[in-house]
Amino acid sequence: MSPSSASPKLPPFDPADPLGIDDLLEPEDLAVRDTVRAWAADRVLPHVAQWYERGELPVIRELARELGRIGALGMSLSGYGCAGASAVQYGLACLELEAADSGIRSLVSVQGSLAMYAIHRFGSEEQKREWLPRMAAGEVIGCFGLTEPDHGSDPASMRTHAKRDGSDWVLSGRKMWITNGSVAGVAVVWAQTDEGIRGFVVPTASSGFSAPEIKHKWSLRASVTSELVLDEVRLPADAVLPEVTGLRGPLGCLTHARYGIVWGAMGAARSCFEAAVEYATSREQFGRPIGGFQLTQAKLADMAVELHKGILLAHHLGRRMDAGRLRPEQVSFGKLNNVREAIDICRTARTILGANGISLEYPVMRHATNLESVLTYEGTVEMHQLVLGKALTGIDAFR
């Protein structure tokens, strides 16, 4: 056999990347991923179990400034101090952040994909210049007020309203389950007006604005979650986002944020999978590592298949977003699949770890409980199923 006809030498099998997905990434993509992974390993992982147990994120402002310094806030936006990264790079960052904790990814998601994205996409030039550079640097934290106590999946029925009073706007209402609310310097709030639903840029120091923190959570405990109370908050005429009217505005922001969740959920799943592999190869029962038993290997194989299929799906959606071809229905596809599979991976990992799976010495139960929130926020399972159902049949089954 001549050398030219010999089979090419295959690369070794990599248990951490069994499909060779890293081959699809550019050097710049890998650099972003490695930077965020190193930051999370240094600043989050040594402390997050304690934060979770105490139900607080005491260094959120410090973390926000550090995330700003590494370019992670509003990173897929361009100009105004933003990094201008690709959608794939933003997704990789979300994966690494959620591998540390969903609460940290939520901080970044709400800051960049909701509050900053709304101002960047629909704001005036003055609003962009006033807020985006400071938000990109982590000097100002933002929040996004859409969900209400009685109107989650049906934002069109929101009761928060804004009325004109001379040249001013006066906002009244309540928003619920708002990430970053109690520490935010600015809130993007959506309200009913005589013109339709409008978005408003609300400095949180405004008279009549308050944001009591929600306590007693059993999920996303290392995260700040709040209620927003707007009691006749008076704003100037130029506080309204000028470039959008109607639900197209907030739903467009949610599409951008849901894309980050598609990646982030796989970070939580990867963390649990890695913990399960390490445990299965070191924990001995009946005279051998439990990873040597067929049932355990079957679990690990199924977890690996769903994990890396999910990462491959996220990568595909990221390339479509970078090409300007990503549809909201495709984001629903990714969010529905990846969060659902991530929870299943976490639960299976818990069975491999046995009783140790419920201990905060391991990340598994923390990720599993966090993902219970990720499963339903920014669109429940049922809502994304109906989005896909309508796309597949052409029939609207929402009502």
Automatic annotation (TrEMBL):
Coiled coil: none annotated. Its cofactor is FAD. Pfam families: Acyl-CoA_dh_1, Acyl-CoA_dh_M, Acyl-CoA_dh_N. It comes from the Bacteria. Keywords: FAD, Flavoprotein, Oxidoreductase, Transit peptide. The keyword Oxidoreductase applies. The keyword Oxidoreductase applies. GO terms for molecular function: fatty-acyl-CoA binding; flavin adenine dinucleotide binding; glutaryl-CoA dehydrogenase activity. Residues 27-139 form the Acyl-CoA dehydrogenase/oxidase N-terminal domain. Residues 246-392 form the Acyl-CoA dehydrogenase/oxidase C-terminal domain. Residues 143-233 form the Acyl-CoA oxidase/dehydrogenase middle domain. Gene3D superfamilies: Acyl-CoA dehydrogenase/oxidase, N-terminal domain, Butyryl-CoA Dehydrogenase, subunit A, domain 2, Butyryl-CoA Dehydrogenase, subunit A, domain 3. One of its GO terms (biological process) is fatty acid beta-oxidation using acyl-CoA dehydrogenase. Belongs to the acyl-CoA dehydrogenase family. This is Acyl-CoA dehydrogenase. It comes from Streptomyces cyaneogriseus subsp. noncyanogenus.
